[in-house]
Design a protein that fits this description.
Blueprint (H helix, E strand, L loop, with lengths): L2 H28 L7 H13 L3 H14 L4 H16 L3 H14 L6 H21 L12 H16 L6 H28 L3 H14 L5 H15 L3 H14 L6 H9 L6
Length: about 270
């Protein structure tokens, strides 16, 4: 082994030895919060939250919960983290934080607010797909976020009917219900337009059975009448027509449907 090689190796080892503690020192210096109390961490997190710096707020809340997992500051940090994640555009983290809080503090005086935030998070996730109710192939639209949001809001109004958030939750549930019904109706139309009448009837029946009070229910009955007729099932078509006549006697499609069913094979 040459003397030159030994000198180079020694220099490398010495440099590594000098840099190692230096890196640790720099790391410690970079974390200005290392000596902060729980109160200080919470105060800084709250200031960041109020100033709209949600990412910084989340960082402080995480450190607070990791270093001081017990006590009122940690509990409040967990509560406010749900809102911070929601506003920071991190829906998965917001829902996970909400679920943790609900499981850990089911009797907390503000747990209704956490249910509301969870529903609101999924509601905002659902608004995109549900606003596009007629994509090229509506059967590929994912309505799971809307269904989950409806469930979240329903949990809130069922468990806390007098909550200050309940009225807004009920209004959003109504909107979600009507949009979900419209989504199912568009899928039924899609199938019917392609001659897939069994699938069309199944989707239309789902609307009638699950969203009977929605505006989409009467059109679902229209689809059922037409598809049953196309399938050569006039009795079922007439049954659907009778339900339509009873529930929406002024429906403009009734005269045409009456003629259609009246001329269908198998009448009598």
């Amino acid at each position: 082994m040459s003397a030159r090689f030994l000198r180079l190796r020694l220099a490398t080892v010495l440099a590594a030895a000098l840099l190692a503690p230096g890196c640790a020192w720099l790391s410690e210096k970079a974390d200005e919060t290392r000596d902060w109390s729980a109160a200080k961490l919470y105060s800084e997190a709250k200031d960041a939250l109020n100033n709209g710096d949600y990412t910084r707020a989340i960082g402080y809340y995480d450190k607070l919960q990791a270093r001081y997992p017990f006590g009122r500051y940690a509990q409040q940090a967990q509560l406010e983290s749900v809102y911070a994640y929601y506003r920071d555009g991190e829906p998965d983290s917001a829902v996970a934080a909400a679920d943790r809080f609900i499981k850990t503090y089911p009797r907390h005086p503000y747990v209704d607010y956490v249910y509301y935030l969870k529903g609101l998070t999924n509601y905002n996730r659902a608004s995109g797909p549900l606003d596009r109710l007629m994509p090229p192939d509506p059967t590929r639209t994912d309505a799971s976020a809307a269904l989950q949001s409806f469930t979240d809001f329903n949990d809130l109004v069922t468990k806390f009917p007098d909550s200050r958030y309940a009225p807004d939750a009920r209004a959003r549930m109504l909107f979600l219900r009507n949009n979900l019904a419209s989504y199912e109706l568009n899928v039924a139309r899609h199938y019917q337009s392609r001659g897939a009448h069994v699938a069309a009837v199944n989707r239309a029946k789902y609307v009638v059975e699950n969203y009977a009070s929605s505006p989409a229910a009467t059109e679902a009955l229209v689809i059922m009448v037409r598809s049953y007729t196309a399938m050569g099932l006039p009795e079922l078509a007439r049954d659907a027509l009778r339900v339509l006549q009873k529930n929406d006697p002024q429906n403009p499609d009734i005269p045409k449907l009456t003629t259609l069913v009246g001329t269908a094979p198998g009448k009598g």
